[in-house]
From TrEMBL:
Name this polypeptide is given: Uncharacterized protein
Domain of life from the UniProt record: Bacteria
Amino acid sequence: MTETALSHNGILIRLPDERWQPIIQRHTVLTDKKQLVLNTLSNPTRILEGNDGALLAIQQFEPARWLVVAYREEGDDEFVITAFPTRRINFLNRRRQIW
């Protein structure tokens, strides 16, 4: 099943099962946090520039832990690339902030 969320820019972003399954296999802490991933797309704390035209929606979800959702808004196929938790906020702070 494909879930969707409106990005901060008002673009409908897809999160299909074929993207979700590898995310939760690699990051088991996100297994029950699909809605958090979708909410992060819609209501990020900030948006950073990712690699190869991707955007990174960031939201803190635990003390000293952030959720990063990488996604694309360009073209005809807007979708979540991946999502992962991190404590490495300094690494994220090196990226250009878009919003």
